């Protein structure tokens, strides 16, 4: 398969635009996913995705569903740009010596997932605090016995306030809490997603070298994204729990990945690792479907074509 040759600036633009559009569309579902994953036995405030969204709108208003969206919209551009550009870079390098095999495709995905955590970890760290703040506030009002005594009754912090607090207390390491779990999630995700997408997309190509129609790219992105999302959901639950700073008084705290796995299995059972799985599939499917359509339509190349060219 001859991969489409796209310049690095175009890749970055494509990834950034796709991320902005995708996050705007699916962020409320992502907020529900975080809240469902974080609630533990004895402090269950939400019963389902719809229940979470309805209660969020009632208690926090429509824009309550977009808590933490500013962080995502700011950092998703470099995050998605790095992931897509890195995958293409590794695919091109690995295909120089011959056919791009499935193993090489997985290695390219591994490289992309490893590169993206530079941005993903602090983005997720800040986003999770902002998304879960509403759950803690609702618990304080409806289930006061479940809120930890040390949890301050203050207005929801901003991303800048959270960043300053983390820097002051733990330095740069504070923003990278849960880095190991993020790697354990994002590397396998990319190893599953990119090869699966490429092979599904190839099935819809017009001829051996012709591009696939945009709807094939969209469907391929949705199917590959939802499959990879559900496959790594157990690690996503672990990452969300490790990165959450505020908890109810009846909720467990964790010292690391192993401790988190042990306590979840003991206190909540194996099914807890699937919390929010369908939400995550609903988030990732359109997110990556949109990304691949933007990428294959060549939006970045169109934008660059309007910029003045330098004389050689």
UniProtKB/TrEMBL annotation:
SUPFAM superfamilies: Mitochondrial carrier (SSF103506). It holds the Pfam family Mito_carr. It is found in: Mitochondrion inner membrane. Its main location: mitochondrion. GO terms for cellular component: mitochondrial inner membrane. Belongs to the mitochondrial carrier (TC 2.A.29) family. This is Mitochondrial glutamate carrier 1.
């Amino acid at each position: 398969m001859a991969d489409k040759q796209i310049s690095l600036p175009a890749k970055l633009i494509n990834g950034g635009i796709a991320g902005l559009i995708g996050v705007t569309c699916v962020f409320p579902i992502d907020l529900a996913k975080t809240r469902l994953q974080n609630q533990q036995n004895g402090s269950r405030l939400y019963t389902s995705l719809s229940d979470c969204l309805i209660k969020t709108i009632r208690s926090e208003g429509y824009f309550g569903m977009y808590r933490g969206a500013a962080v995502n919209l700011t950092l998703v551009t470099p995050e998605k740009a790095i992931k897509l550009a890195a995958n293409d870079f590794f695919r091109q390098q690995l295909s120089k010596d011959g056919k791009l095999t499935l193993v090489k495709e997985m290695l390219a995905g591994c490289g992309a997932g490893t590169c993206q955590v530079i941005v993903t970890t602090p983005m997720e760290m800040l986003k999770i605090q902002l998304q879960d703040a509403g759950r803690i506030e609702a618990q304080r009002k409806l289930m006061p016995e479940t809120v930890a005594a040390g949890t301050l009754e203050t207005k929801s912090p901003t991303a800048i306030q959270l960043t300053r607090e983390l820097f002051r207390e733990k330095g740069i390491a504070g923003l990278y809490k849960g880095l190991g779990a993020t790697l354990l999630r994002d590397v396998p995700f990319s190893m599953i997603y990119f090869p699966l997408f490429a092979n599904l997309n190839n099935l819809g190509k017009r001829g051996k070298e012709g591009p696939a129609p945009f709807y094939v790219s969209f469907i391929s992105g949705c199917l590959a994204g939802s499959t990879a999302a559900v496959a790594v959901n157990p690690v996503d639950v672990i990452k969300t729990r490790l990165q959450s700073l505020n908890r109810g008084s009846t909720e467990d705290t964790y010292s690391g990945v192993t401790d988190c796995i042990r306590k979840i299995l003991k206190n909540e059972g194996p099914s807890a690792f699937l919390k929010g799985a369908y939400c995550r599939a609903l988030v990732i499917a359109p997110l990556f479907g949109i990304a691949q359509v933007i990428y294959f339509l060549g939006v970045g190349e169109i934008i660059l074509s309007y910029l003045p060219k330098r004389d050689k």
